[in-house]
Design a protein that fits this description.
By secondary structure, this protein is α/β, with parallel strands linked by helices. Strand 4 and strand 5 form a beta hairpin.
């Protein structure tokens, strides 16, 4: 299916789900989230289109910008050493119990800020999460996400093969219980 035909259908599906938020709310994991799957090589086109369609209704949270901001909060040599020390357990760096904050906390705060403005929170550039130990399910299951007025929309660069979803086209995704637009 061509990008133009496929994107129309996906954006129609997104509009339908956002107009019927009560139908997608569930008590299960990720019940107040929409995972919007698309080919990674077409990410720019999909982001351009969602911004065009939802510019006044949504707030866009760019995970890549939050990652860079988090890394910049360290001196580079300090971050490099820290990362090398914990490269096998990256969640210790990016999703920790550190009260000074981490990447995960920054993402949740950004979502809460958008939601407090009465807008739909849309996470973009989520491929930047690869290697951080932060999974989409961690974000979806967070108590503040589960209680949002509008569902969290996660732009998810992936491919579908044999009914399996592969994040960034190679990493098998978990079986999400959220609403999946594919």
């Amino acid at each position: 299916m061509s990008y133009l035909t496929e994107h129309r259908q996906k954006f129609d599906d997104l509009k339908h789900h956002l107009n019927n938020v009560e139908q997608i709310r569930r008590e299960a994991n990720g019940g107040n989230s929409i995972l919007f799957a698309f080919p990674p090589e077409e990410e720019s086109e999909y982001i351009y289109k969602v911004k065009e369609l939802y510019i006044s209704k949504a707030g866009f949270i760019d995970v890549s910008e939050l990652l860079v901001k988090f890394i910049d909060s360290f001196e580079w040599s300090e971050f490099e050493k820290y990362y090398k020390d914990y490269r096998i357990t990256p969640h210790v760096i990016f999703k920790s119990d550190d009260p000074s904050g981490d990447l995960f906390s920054s993402i949740i705060k950004a979502i809460e800020t958008v939601a407090s403005q009465g807008k739909i929170p849309i996470l973009i550039r989520t491929g930047a999460l690869y290697g951080t130990g932060i999974e989409n399910i961690h974000i979806m299951e967070h108590s503040s996400i589960m209680s949002l007025l509008y569902p969290l929309v996660i732009f998810y660069p992936s491919k579908i093969k044999d009914e399996n979803l592969f994040f960034l086209n190679f990493r098998l995704a978990s079986r999400y219980r959220c609403t999946l637009i594919k």
